[in-house]
Write a structure and sequence with these properties.
Strand content: 15-25%
Mean pLDDT: 97
Strand order of the largest sheet: 1-7-6-5-4-2-3
Shape: globular
Number of helices: 13
Bound molecules: pyridoxal-5'-phosphate
Number of strands: 11
Helix content: 25-40%
Structural class: alpha/beta
Radius of gyration: 20 Å
Largest sheet: 7 strands, mixed
Low-confidence stretches: none
Distance between the termini: 20 Å
Order of helices and strands: HHEHEHHEHEHEHEEHHHEEHEEH
Amino acid sequence: MKPARSFASDNNAGVHSKILEAIAAANQGHVVGYGDDPYTAAAVRKFKQHFGSDIDVFMVFNGTAANTLGLKAMTESYQAVICTEAAHIYTDECGAPERFTGCKLIPIATTDGKLTVEMVRHAYHGIGDQHHVQPRVVSITQATEDGTVYKPKEVRDLARFAHQHNMLLHMDGARVANAAVSLGLSLRQATRDLGVDVLSFGGTKNGAMGAEAVIFFNREFCRDFLYVRKQGMQLASKMRFISAQFDALLTGDLWRKNAEHANRMATLLKKEVSRIRGIKIVYKVEANGVFAQIPRSAIARLQKRYFFYVWNEEELVVRWMCSFDTTEQDVKEFAQFVAETI
Ligand SMILES: Cc1ncc(COP(=O)(O)O)c(C=O)c1O
């Protein structure tokens, strides 16, 4: 029998019971559609409690949309977005950001998923040259696609450089909760206070059923966002059910507990598999993912029992993710199976 839970993705996990309860509780009677309902008002209030009252927040269905529409709001089609080569916006969104914004993405190779000011400086050129796209946004992912986490100073430095050069800082926060707990910061301290202009706030990977949001700390760019979201096909008619999920996630620190747990399980997984000869952990484990180089012969045999993604086929790096519902026993059983197989 296959195990109930695998390590393929935090998207493969189910939904936290408190989120399901919140959805059920919102399933009472009729309310106005498209966001003009008390559940959405309550969720927006929660966001404001966490991030400050002077923000604008818009619910969307998924992370690709949060990134794409957030970027769209900040750019003109002749501009460019600087990101890493591993960025979800560059590798995993089927060109949606390019299609909707019209912008060129400028991908930068990194060793750990993180941009530095030096890298951005190198990509920032052609300014004022009519033949050249104009860099307008620096987009970082926090926690990164490689399971690492930008330190506060690293984000602050990127924000400062961006702002000094007439650019904006976008954060893909599909796993921002994991990053914030890893840094021991509140959601606000990990984002807005570091200079982020627009945040894609992820709920789905942290126990929600399907709830993402675009948060504007810099409100200059959200003036037309209602129209951008609708034209982007992301205006939920029964928005109350997305909003109820955020209300639950942002209440009683559920966001923090879920992320803390997932991160702790990844640290445990790293400890367990590090002991196995033939395995090399390739990136620092700072959030809820473990990236390991393993023998080629083991991959297919492991995948028969536990589905997971090969991150880099040439270098035989695989990705193992933990989620809010991963148990210590899951980790131990998986590590034991890895040891036996290798
Ligand atoms: C870094 C990152 N950003 C965004 C997303 C959101 O993607 P989706 O459109 O599947 O919700 C994901 C999901 O895998 C991700 O890993």
